[in-house]
Amino acid sequence: MSTNNNTTAVSKKASMDLWIILIITFIVLGIYMVFGSEIDNFVTNSQYPILIRTICIAFVQFGVAGLGISVVCFLRKEKFTDFGLHKDKALQSILLSVLAFVPNIIFTWTIGEFNRYLPFHRVNITDSLFQSSLPEAILGMIFVAAAWGFFEGFNYVVITDKINSCMPSKLWWLDWGAVICAVMCILIHGAIGLTPEGIIEMFTTLFAIYGMLMARKYTGNAWGCVFVFLFLWNAY
Question: What residues does each domain of the chain span?
Answer without folding.
Answer: 2-231
